[in-house]
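Researcher: Quick test of sequence recovery. Tokens follow.
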């Protein structure tokens, strides 16, 4: 009976190995495909991002060679080992040459990976220069402060294609992490400490940035838009941002300006050129020109803005925007005014 069972056990092993290999391939494919519609560092459009992708490709290639080699040796040992009798199998214990080779190969691989990482990190870490603006992380939105230019652009920033972008990184409350996947790596935003990041955007377009450090219940809804434009468009954008708020023209917007000044919005928000001077919440001077609301929880449309004003806690629970009870007419007037701030 024992002689009959042994061959069955030996034949079953390759099936298990094959099943495990197939499962690993399926899992790897699922992981790669899962990120196809999301911001990915592998689709880089920035100088630092390109360096990181280069390092990732080198590491993946080296480790792939190692993995394939191990699989090949494993298959060879399984196939040839089954054909030998146990007493004929050669032993490697005590073979100094083989032991040196087994030790040297991993050492060489680790050394190569270390040198690659060191060289590419040095390329990314360009000499520090003066920052163009400061990125301040808050629960749960982004305050981009162009202090020297005299304006703020919450949750949405512009950069010039082909020009170095330098950013000071701060936090106003807890630890956050600044990350635009296509531009480069992450950098922590630590209360009481200023970090710095710099890179060169290489292609115009809109890129979604996010906080990559868990910072509270609305961490997943703390995003921002990073827009890369031509140098001429960037200069025009800066000039528009430096201007005070536009005067309302429509009747509803004119009424909305009176509403916003009478319901306490100025205790949190600022609108340059008006009496609103708050600093606790986002600057609303050019709110109408932005693409998102509440750190890109919603797209900036009149319908979504009305929804946000009516029930901010329903849209983004535990945010610092309070529910302010207003008649529907005043809510619509407020929406009309804010949408004209471009």
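Model:
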């Amino acid at each position: 009976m024992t002689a009959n069972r042994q061959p069955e056990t030996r034949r079953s092993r390759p099936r298990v190995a094959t099943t495990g290999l197939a499962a690993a391939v399926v899992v790897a494919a699922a992981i790669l495909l899962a990120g196809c519609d999301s911001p990915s560092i592998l689709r880089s459009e920035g100088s630092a991002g390109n360096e990181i992708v280069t390092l990732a490709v080198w590491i993946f290639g080296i480790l792939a060679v190692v993995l394939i080699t191990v699989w090949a040796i494993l298959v060879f040992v399984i196939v040839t080992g089954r054909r030998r009798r146990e007493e004929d199998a050669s032993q490697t214990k005590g073979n100094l040459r083989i032991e040196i080779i087994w030790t040297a190969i991993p050492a060489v691989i680790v050394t190569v990976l270390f040198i690659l990482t060191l060289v590419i990190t040095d390329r990314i870490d360009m000499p520090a220069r003066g920052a163009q603006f400061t990125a301040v992380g808050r629960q749960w939105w982004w305050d981009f402060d162009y202090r020297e230019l005299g304006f703020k652009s919450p949750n949405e920033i512009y950069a010039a294609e082909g020009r170095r972008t330098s950013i000071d990184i701060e936090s106003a409350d807890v630890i956050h992490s600044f990350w635009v996947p296509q531009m480069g790596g992450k950098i922590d935003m630590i209360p009481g400490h200023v970090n710095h990041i710099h890179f060169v955007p290489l292609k115009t377009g809109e890129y979604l940035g996010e906080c990559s450090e868990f910072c509270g219940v609305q961490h997943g809804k703390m995003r921002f838009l990073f827009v890369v434009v031509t140098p001429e468009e960037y200069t025009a954008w800066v000039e528009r941002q430096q201007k005070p708020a536009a005067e309302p023209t429509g009747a509803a917007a004119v009424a909305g300006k009176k509403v916003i000044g009478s319901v306490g919005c100025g205790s949190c928000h600022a609108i340059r050129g008006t009496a609103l001077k708050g600093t606790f919440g986002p600057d609303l001077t050019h709110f109408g020109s932005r693409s998102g609301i509440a750190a890109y929880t919603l797209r900036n449309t009149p319908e979504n803005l009305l929804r946000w004003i009516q029930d901010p806690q329903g849209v983004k629970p535990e945010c610092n925007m309070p529910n302010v009870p207003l008649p529907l007419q005043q809510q619509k007037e407020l929406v009309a005014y804010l949408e004209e701030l471009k």
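The domain at 2-124 is CATH 1.10.287.90 (Helix Hairpins).
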